Amino acid sequence: MKSHVKAVVIGGGVVGCSVLYHLAKAGWTDIMLIERSELTSGSSWHAAGGFHTLNGDPNVAKLQAYTVQLYKEIEELSGQSCSLHLTGGVMMADTPERMDFLRLAHAKGRYLGMDTELITPSEAKAMFPLMDDKNFVGAMWDPVEGHLDPSGTTIAYSKAAKKLGAEIVLRNRVVDLTQQPDGTWNVVTEQGTVHAEHVVNCGGLWAREIGRMVGVELPVLAMEHMYLLTEPMPEVEEFNKSTGREMIGVLDFKGEIYTRQERNGILLGTYEKACKPWSPVNTPWDFGHELLQPDIDRIAPSLEIGFKHFPGIEKAGIKQIINGPFTFALDGNPLVGPVQGLTNFWCACAVMAGFSQGGGVGLALSNWMVHGDPGFDVWGMDVARFGEWASLRYTNAK
After folding, report:
1. Residue 189: strand pairing partners
2. pLDDT above 90 covers what percent of the chain?
3. Are residues 305 and 236 part of one domain?
4. How many CB atoms lie within 10 A of CB 17?
5. 211 with 234, same domain?
6. pLDDT over 60 at 398, yes or no
7. For the purposes of burial, counting CB atoms within 10 Å of the CB of 52, is it exposed (0-12), middle (13-18) or buried (19 or more)?
8. Rounded mean pLDDT of the chain?
9. Mean pLDDT along residues 226-254
């Protein structure tokens, strides 16, 4: 492990590895990522691995489109497969008001160069026959949607960064951060101290703990999030055989449900309305590759909508329920950029949709650090949008 580097990135999830890669690509090769355990040992490893370009903020949507386009690049450079499934996907509207939202998203997407298309419910059903199209009034098709292998993708970022000269140190927890009079940092770890000009907090579930080392309370909270995997379904296998392709991904706004094919079955997840915070004050340092106890009753109202809208899934057996923590900021957007009041201390955390946004976050932050400007309008995810009023008490209540 080096004792002096240009920048230290703390955290080896998909966002930390993306930041490391983009910094190295921008010419900062004297950099180091420090991870307390193994790569992905937080939220990244148990993610559903979906990606899409739709976002209410067109600037964030543009960064999401960049993220998806980036995967081929890091596969080629690293030699590591991301197991990309570029299936395309549809967003389903069950009311005229939600259809108006899709029309607006379609117009914004076209302006940004995205190849979206407004389609009928029956056209959507032809691509995902498990749905009952009578429950919907319209849909938007996006060809740049799909899913990937979360661990493989994170490793691809890390291998690409190492090929460009970056260093990765695993099983080495950061225990303290102290700023020197000249603005540089001493990063104190279990294996020794690293002197760095810049520090980036990509701590994920531990972003609060890293922030507290420098006197900052980041407005981040981890929430439990569940998705289920079905047993193999004959309908899925028949669709694959008859069409020669995979079923697409579907987003249903009413139940806040997403679903896609997983092997010969279906993955169905929901951003549950009855949200449950996880570890609201401190994240245990020894947490990592564990899952949380499923609580199917908590998502039952959303599943009821899902099984009504997608009756083909209701008949399937449930093979597994995944429940794991993900971090959210107050408004659901990431926290990215320089932390006010500190010299060369940066954030890239609360990236809930890491496989849709991680590449764009890494690009914007590396531009900011290397060139002094993110290169995009990133106000919607700038950490500076929250002030000291966003305390732990306020964040958790919000």
Report:
1. 174, 192
2. 85
3. yes
4. 33
5. no
6. no
7. buried
8. 94
9. 96
**Alpha-carbon span 49 to 45, nearest angstrom:** 9
pLDDT band at 394 (very low <50, low <70, confident <90, very high): low
pTM attached to this predicted model: 0.95
In CATH, what number is assigned to the domain containing residue 37? 3.50.50.60
Give the CATH number for residue 280. Answer: 3.30.9.10
Residues 6+ apart with CB under 8 A from 197: 5, 6, 7, 183, 184, 185, 344
Chain centroid offset of residue 341 CA: 27
Tally of structural domains, the chain: 2
Residue 319: domain span = 89-143+222-326
